[in-house]
């Protein structure tokens, strides 16, 4: 089968590999029908994810059809259309039992797919702990509607959940990239008093104005004054930092009101500074970490009901055979790209 493979820092290559097989009774083999490229894949390519294992197939955003299941798998059967969770998790350890599946202690737990074990930018993928890691796609929901459920949409949903948003809140979202837009959709489900999005790129601001005219927008250089003028208590009640840029972490705590909440959703390339003397007296609550993707079934239900729709994020589509061109487009942000879908067909 064809599989896009991490060879060494700076090098991915489309290779022929053996199809995956069941290695554990709780495994499933999924025939991938649609995948996508995530910024985290670029982090692997450029050496920002030390856990990534050279030789693995990359990719952790995918949907497909169950091909085969191990004898202990109960929730899915061959022929089921499924989303694949970015996190594989055992479901039994202390962290899984508390819903903190990103911290699953099993060797294949947490973010493993496309990082420590073979992922889904390939024709087939082995998914450990299939009962927890796969969710059946309701019949009316298309592959394109479901594509981001297991990763960036789960991230946005989790971010909105941990932020404890109330109807009286002013919420600031820093970053209007793909994960930022998914976070925005999930924040809007909470019906806060107002939402402000901070974004630098004109194309993304145009996307915001087109699809979310009810949302206020500003740019980084104007953000602090803008948020203070458009909030009730001198800053945002809740800030969600989704950009992961050089200055966005500082912007997040500066734009929060005293006793506000800052949820850090972004994955950074390097360490960030927490200047406690400058922050003294703000009494902020920080919530950080990787997504705990426990709500994929709920997200699929919301998509089915028309409450969430991320299909406008898919601006380009390539076949797997042209994935290198897709990566080049996505990495260099050409042609107003937001997200790229990779169509995958079984080879005879």
UniProtKB/TrEMBL annotation:
Annotated keywords: Metal-binding, Oxidoreductase, Zinc
Coiled-coil residues: none
SMART domains: PKS_ER
Cofactor: Zn(2+)
Lineage: Bacteria, Bacillati, Bacillota, Clostridia, Eubacteriales
Signal peptide (from-to): none
Protein name per UniProt: Alcohol dehydrogenase catalytic domain-containing protein
CDD domains cross-referenced by the UniProt entry: FDH_like
